[in-house]
Specification:
Helix content: over 70%
Radius of gyration: 22 Å
Shape: globular
Structural class: mainly alpha
Largest sheet: none
Distance between the termini: 35 Å
Order of helices and strands: HHHHHHHHHHHHHH
Number of strands: 0
Length: 335
């Protein structure tokens, strides 16, 4: 005979198994993006136009680069709140280097490449300093990077006296304004980051540090150096994002991308990189950025206010954080 208690218990167990499989799926955000476009795209005027597709791409690429650096940091179990200040500071310093009106190189043919180099060095250096303070002073990443956000953001405003710097060289503006060139930069950096995470010893060190820093240290992983390198990568990627943002606006601004910190962290978490560390992929981050930019774009096309858009995006990011916590519990139960 069939035990009725077992048959009654079977459906809830199967349902829980299906829910767990859905929540833990690596392609969850990609499917949500496709579903979002399918359901809302036809209802939003101009969403499927070529011009709008280019706008989404240009908005997506610098955010992807910034979120890529955040992915490295989150994998180690940290967080980098100084990203937007790095973007603003490198934007104005790079503009000062290459403009004739404010700059040190003026109309020199080396102005653009040297400005790009200076921006990348500054971004990487700030990231390295963040990592050094976290590991050597044993301070929480939140406090160190929040302080960095305030200091470097204020420094950018002080350097420019809160003024924008225009008249940037066309060769520089094309780096961010030309969709194909910006896309090529993002693809190269994204591909290299994927190889670092998936195929390199450094990638294994990152995941080991995020899973359990103490166990990784005992196993021979150079945990402090790994954390410093992760924050240096975050600063480097923030500087790359600054290059694209500055090229798109054709202006060096101390408050450039000041409002995208929520997007940088949110897109990374939405994609599936865990706030608890030890988990993340480049493809996940790309899907998270895509989903957040689709939401942003459709809400803008519907002429919603900035406040309404911020509220909706905040709700989406909160849902992603709850989903991450659920995934963490499921993964722990499965382990």
């Amino acid at each position: 005979m069939v035990d009725p208690s077992n048959s009654a218990a079977r459906p809830p167990a199967m349902l829980r198994l299906k829910v767990r499989k859905f929540v833990l799926s690596e392609h969850l955000v990609l499917w949500l993006s496709i579903l979002y476009v399918t359901l809302l795209g036809p209802l939003v005027p101009g969403f499927f136009s070529t011009e709008n597709a280019v706008n989404i791409l240009l908005a997506l690429l610098p955010l992807f680069l910034a979120a890529l650096g955040q992915t490295f940091v989150l994998i180690t179990g940290g967080i980098d709140l100084s990203v937007t200040s790095v973007i603003g500071l490198t934007s104005v310093v790079g503009a000062k280097v290459m403009t004739a009106q404010h700059g040190w190189l003026g109309n020199s043919p080396w102005a653009t490449p040297l400005a790009v180099l200076v921006m990348l060095v500054i971004g990487t250096g700030i990231g390295g300093l963040n990592g050094l303070a976290i590991t050597r002073l044993r301070l929480p990443a939140f406090i160190v990077t929040f302080t960095g956000m305030m200091f470097f953001g204020g420094l950018a405003i002080w350097v420019t006296q809160s003024r924008n710097i225009g008249a940037l060289p066309d060769s520089f503006n094309r780096l961010g304004g030309n969709a194909w060139l910006a896309c090529a930069i993002a693809v190269v950096i994204g591909g290299f980051a994927h190889l670092m995470l998936a195929r390199s010893l450094f990638g294994r060190w990152l995941f080991a540090t995020g899973h359990n820093a103490r166990a990784a240290d005992i196993s021979g992983v150079p945990v402090p150096a790994t954390i410093i390198a992760a924050y240096a990568v975050s600063g480097f990627c923030a500087a790359l994002a600054s290059i694209l943002y500055t090229g798109q606006t054709e202006t060096g601004s101390p408050v450039l991308a000041q409002r995208v910190l929520l997007d940088v962290i949110g897109a990374t978490i939405i994609g599936g990189t865990s706030l608890f560390g030890g988990k993340g992929k480049v493809a996940w981050t790309l899907c998270g950025v895509l989903f957040l930019k689709l939401v942003d774009n459709t809400l803008n096309l519907l002429n919603l206010s900035v406040f309404a858009i911020t509220m909706v995006k905040g709700g989406v990011i909160l849902f992603a954080a709850l989903l991450d916590a659920t995934r963490h519990r499921f993964s722990g139960a499965r382990a």
